[in-house]
Predict the structure.
Amino acid sequence: MNSYNLLFEQLYKQAHGVLPKNFEDLGDLVDIDGSLIDAVLSMYWADYRKGSKKAKGYFGFDINRGVPNKVYLTNGNGAERPFVGRILSPGQTGVMDRGYQSHKDFDLLQQDGKHFVCRIKIKTTRTVVKQNPVDPDSYVFYDSVVLLGTPRINQSEKSVRVVGYKIDGVKYFIATDRHDLTAEQIATAYKLRWRIETFFKWWKKHLKVYHLIARSEYGLMLQILGGLITYLLMAIYCRTKFNEPVSIKRVRELRATIRNELYGTHSQVDDNLFKEHKELFAHAKT
């Protein structure tokens, strides 16, 4: 397992140096999300609910470069929030959906020098400390520094900034400790969260990483790491050889090349074996 983890980390570092950095003005963005993996009943460790087994992967996704950078695995009932601090490094900004809302965790992240852009529930109690000006022509309608939660119950110790914006009739409230960005940039950073969903969809469909081969937790983690390593290799290959992002077109081309080379090698080996057997047969006749 350690060798696979090491290879994954080394390939990410290589990809980090090769792939272009997008959205540089927003800082180092890491999307954080979990993904359920259908398991079979014999996978006793993958607790989820009665009559159903699932595992859960927790992923960090480098939004700026469009590649995964961290992964952890638990049973399907595992809590996602404890992995945020493990996925993020100081200076990075975790981009998260409202399932990660935790006022205590927001305090801890600020304490550790780790940033966050996290959607929160609309009805979350907000005690306003400072109101920031809002452009009346912007889709942003709210920008304030607040204390989140109910006093003496679940209120945050450190203040956070909350940005509210409306898109297609839906209101979003985003909590963050990023005071260096405009309200519109905060909204943009959160909207980039959907890039991990695009990655999951492509990764599962074309690399078939959730087609179970292993049954143990160790074996499943190896399978997931193998899929992530393959994606990183493809990202590096497509960028260095074609100066473009990963595409199914390039995957199919590379697959065909490998298949042709493999068959060509087998043909050469078969010809050599035929010659050896022919010589032995001739020698035996004499």
